[in-house]
Amino acid sequence: MTTDNRLDHRDQTETERNARRVHNVSAEPRSPGAPQAPPGLPEQGVVVSADRPAIRLTGLTKSFGGAANAVDGIDLDIAEGEFFSMLGPSGSGKTTVLRLIAGFEQPTAGTVSLLGEDVTDRAPFDRDVNTVFQDYALFPHMSVLDNVAYGLRVRGVSRRERHAQARQALETVRLGGFGDRKPGQLSGGQRQRVALARATVVRPKVLLLDEPLGALDLKLREQMQVELKELQRELGITFIFVTHDQEEALTLSDRIAVFNEGRIEQLGTPAEIYDRPLSPFVAAFVGTSNIFPDALSRAVLGRGGMHALRPEKVTVGRADAVPSTQRTAPGTLAEVIYVGSTSRLIVDLDAGMRIIALEQNDAHRVTEDERGSRVSVGWQDSDIVALEKATADTTDPATDPATDTATDSAPKLTTDTAR
Description:
Layout: H1 3-23, E1 55-62, E2 71-78, E3 83-87, H2 94-102, E4 109-114, E5 117-118, E6 129-132, H3 144-154, H4 159-172, H5 188-200, E7 206-210, H6 218-235, E8 238-243, H7 246-252, E9 255-260, E10 263-268, H8 270-275, H9 280-285, E11 290-292, H10 294-301, E12 307-309, E13 315-317, E14 327-338, E15 342-349, E16 354-360, E17 374-379, E18 385-386, E19 399-400, E20 405-406
Parallel strand pairs: 3-8, 3-9, 6-7, 7-8
Antiparallel strand pairs: 1-2, 1-4, 4-5, 9-10, 11-12, 12-18, 13-17, 14-15, 14-17, 15-16, 19-20
């Protein structure tokens, strides 16, 4: 037995069990009727009809024995080739839904279908999905090339063919010259690309991404967002992306499901979610909103019900300088916060609430920065959003009860520990 063969044998006996969990692939034959790839070639995506989405969740429920369900009756269709994000705070159920799709958890009730086939009772390795984890789960003793090729090796692809496909996958993620390195010799962003190459080289029908950019610094995360979207568009694979980062979800997604307490609070495109939130939770969690409860809506906006107004839609100027085309409300400038390209202005309205405005820091800015000065706040009626899902006893989720100051409702979370 050659040294290379001995190493291959040792690697397989040491890591095969973990690799099957990480890659969701199996050396055993697939179930009868499942599509098979020609020997030595990755499986290609199939065209699905509108009534057979890539993923269909029906009545999906998961309970861990507590008073409330972690996932509570989710009905959801995800189209083939879609970049779909599940967004929510810790404990909202998004990660549990991802694990139910992957097969790492079994539902208490409901079904998971992949390309029209019920896979609810199948093991993870018998579902044509792959998962990219936040910690990458790379094998430190293997080269980058062997890490990427591992899923193909478990599928029985020959050494020459799997290395050829692995090199091509590394080229796709711009790591063509890194195949001989070990994971420990790479940066965090490079290890993330290796994990993506390893997950996509076997051409899964669906790729699940569990907060894959959470461990990266801001600049690298922004760079990887662009590369991730380009990779998804190039491969045409359905991506299901879990994140607590609103900007990340808005940047990457074709559609977003906003999760809250085990349910989908709102489902729509990034523009629909941001510009037309349906509930106080969505308005406050996705970005920053000025939330007007019914009484203040009547006093300030001249309409009943609960409403939201984004800070960038608000203008602040001298009491006599706001255009007459806008609705206005008088107030006092309480604080000015410089944040680089913009400034955040906090105004105490005479009507009894604080409102946030966002202004560009350019030569045309006319707001005086003197705290305590009298100002006039303006907005267009068309920018007011009625929160249709608000109830009579709904409190303002963007208000700090101690100061009555509009704030972000926990959008700056750093980790999602809930499972």
